Amino acid sequence: xxxxxxxxxxxxxxxxxxxxxxxxxxxxxxxxxxxxxxxxxxxxxxxxxxxxxxxxxxxxxxxxxxxxxxxxxxxxxxxxxxxxxxxxxxxxxxxxxxxxxxxxxxxxxxxxxxxxxxxxxxxxxxxxxxxxxxxxxxxxxxxxxxxxxxxxxxxxxxxxxxxxxxxxxxxxxxxxxxxxxxxxxxxxxxxxxxxxxxxxxxxxx
Length: 205
Prior knowledge:
The protein has 205 residues and is of the alpha+beta class. The chain has two domains: 1-44; 48-203, Porin (Beta Barrel). It contains two helices and eight strands, in the order αβββββββαβ. It has an eight-stranded antiparallel beta barrel. The longest helix is centred in the first third of the chain and has 42 residues, at 3-44. The protein is elongated. The relative contact order is 0.16.
């Protein structure tokens, strides 16, 4: 057999072996890549059970605005606490303060509310929805609508938290507040809207 023929045979065998290995690698990538991807996501995911029996303490700053057009939008601050009743429900307590002007008179609002929130754990992001009830105090010579100085009220909360670390979270919370003394009037004419950027410390898991 001539040297040229031998060389051609070796080249052909090498070519076929490389093709076979290439197909095998392609099949491996095609079948294993999705598994590896899901595995990586699961490894990165924070188990929802980590939030059960967990305490949250924190605060936030933002803005508060009455729907009443005569009342100014003002700065707001809040502190909050929560306890994980389960991996999806939190018991919550919020304290809120804001300051406004209404027809050149000052109006200060203080509130203390408690309620429950439903949360979903999506890797490091935790969106939640909640409802709270409590006490509102409106100090000022004038108030929006027919509101009194002392009001019972409720809020509907929407928010999302991000776990920077296991014991540290940051987030955004939006709340709609309604007042219960005259629901047909106050819920239509003088609801309060608040938005806070928040940070919290978590412990006790």
